[in-house]
Amino acid sequence: QIVVTQEPSLTVSPGGTVTLTCASSTGPVTSNYYTDWFQQKPGQPPRTLISSTTIKQSWTPARFSGSLLGGKAALTLSGVQPEDEADYYCLLFYRDIQVFGGGTKLTVL
Amino acid sequence: EVQLVESGGRLVRPGGSLRLSCAASGFIVTNAYMTWVRQAPGKGLEWVGRIKSKSHGGTTEHAAAVKGRFTISRDDSRNTLYLQMNGLRSEDTALYYCGGMGYWGRGTLVTVSS
Q1: pLDDT confidence of residue B6
Q2: Do B104 and A47 touch (CB under 8 A)?
């Protein structure tokens, strides 16, 4: 059973840069895991930011980018805005199923 | 405009059944991978399962926690996705979201309690 691990919480200053990561218990995350990233704010449904590791949705702000970094999937926010404060989830594809990470609570302070 | 609207959630007894619907507009569900996820109160997102597009075989995959109890299906004539849930347990209590083409509905609440 695959376990997907994210940082439980991170804090970043407005205008700063932060990288959220997504690790798999099965080993290094590659492009074959087709990582998706979602943002969720309180009381709202998830919002898809990134698909298949790097592909942005039409509504995804340019400051968000997806990549592979050191054997993990990564979501980098450059020039963080106060409205980026939210929970972020990664979703990995593995052996015909998909599994979410536990989520990262991003605080902008 | 793309819209997904879930419905069918309600209070149900343990062991009961329920069918959730997800009506889509603005795109054709047959041509998309459609997904159900859920979120228990105060918890993170949990992947429930998905159905592939017709061009990719239209097969379904379900999470281990629901396999054998939940079934995803699609009615192409209604452009609607379904989640048939049988043998419901208290741990299935959650807000259920459907998604496709990067879009998500607002969810429907399922409460399993005696």
Answers
A1: 98
A2: yes
